[in-house]
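Lab intake sheet, docking and co-folding queue.

SAMPLE TYPE: protein with bound small molecule
LIGAND NAME: pyridoxal-5'-phosphate
LIGAND FORMAT: SMILES
REQUESTED OUTPUT: full 3D complex as structure tokens
PRIORITY: normal
SUBMITTED BY: R.K., bench team

The fields below were copied directly from the construct record.
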Amino acid sequence: MDAPTKPSIEEFEIAEACLPGAGLGGYALADEIRFVFSHGRGPRFWDTDGKEYIDYTGGAGALILGHSHPAVVAAAQAQTARGMHMFGALNDQAIRLAKRLVDDIPCAEKIAYATTGSEATAYAMRLARAFTGKDKVMKFEGAYHGNHDYALVSTFPTALGNYPVGQADTGGQPAATRGTMMIAPYNDLEAAMRLAEAHADELAALIVEPVQRIIEGQPEFLAGLRALCDRLGLVLIFDEVVTGYRIAYGGAQAVLGITPDLASFGKVIGGSGALSAVAGKAEIIDLADPAKKGQPEYAYLNGTLHGNPVAAAATLATLDELARPGTYDRLNAACTEFCGEAQKVLDRHGLPAIAANVGSLWQFLFMERPPRSQADMMAGDGAAMKRLDTEMMKRGQYMLPGVRRFFSCVHGQAEVDETLSALDESCRAVAA
Ligand SMILES: Cc1ncc(COP(=O)(O)O)c(C=O)c1O
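RESULT FIELD (auto-filled):
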């Protein structure tokens, strides 16, 4: 392994002086568990003090092949040597990837590139508004659709909903923007129908995560939303930024057999790089055709890094790996088996917690049964959950306290054994 770069104590001082909360975004780890990432390989990484971790945060879900998979590194390096960026004109990698995504994703008659998952959901909402000529979008309480002003409504509600009125998740959000979002409870088809019918004349779209955080979308709920959108002439958007190529090759829609009108993809399809996409019906995606500039329905989708060739090459290599027969059966079964073993440890220590998983998404939750709604999530013991996760972090298991986490294709028996042993010690610490 590479030598440690610089003692973390010096790096924290610089970070504290230069970064808000000494973090890179929405998370700043408590002093007792903070670290500075140095380098990773497969399911593991090392901090700048040389401490080893097993990575279950997995780049917020992007690292389905673990750190620096050799095929992905080779593809990115080869393209880096050929040219790292191109703007305003096509590049061969972006064309090959577009064809691949159109072939793979059930709803994808066409795709439009973006850079992040947030941009992809913002684009999907804009396309839906341009297509229907209506302003409002319904989202579900507790769903995360990214960092933009339309998305940050009732993602982290402090109280359950006054549906369809949403709560602001952030300062700096215009009230007028928040007013264009409608909130409904997840997995509650009747409530969604009632609210959508009452606002059908102003509603453009419904956006939904097929798996909302760690809550499995009930197939009859998702199918009911499809029927509702068909009946009322609304655009159904699946936010597959997490579930895309994670639950199944091509996305959750490939196994659900429910085809949305639009879907946002990011994370896994970035191949660890800055690439995301909106996929969907050609008549909607084509509203972004630059030839339509000047027409009222033209939807402006444009960004410096859209279709970046290095990210596209890395993604193509990632998809080649994921397309190997049996990949998802193995990945999902390995995570389910791990959670089964973890449950035995939790039970042995008498902790009132479950090791919940949906495919390769998993989390320890202090509740009796897998959650179906944001209400269930809020009824769980969040403080106990964070205490257990923090103990796991102290033992080299990288899982953001209280946040859903990921298994990857390269987590094997050695990682499972170490993690279960860390869980045993962590449960003892928590129980004490
Ligand atoms: C379902 C979902 N949508 C959108 C996003 C935003 O993606 P990004 O962080 O790449 O902007 C996320 C990120 O976690 C997500 O989980």
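REVIEWER NOTE: The chain has two domains: 8-68+325-431, 70-322.
SIGN-OFF: pending second check by T.M.
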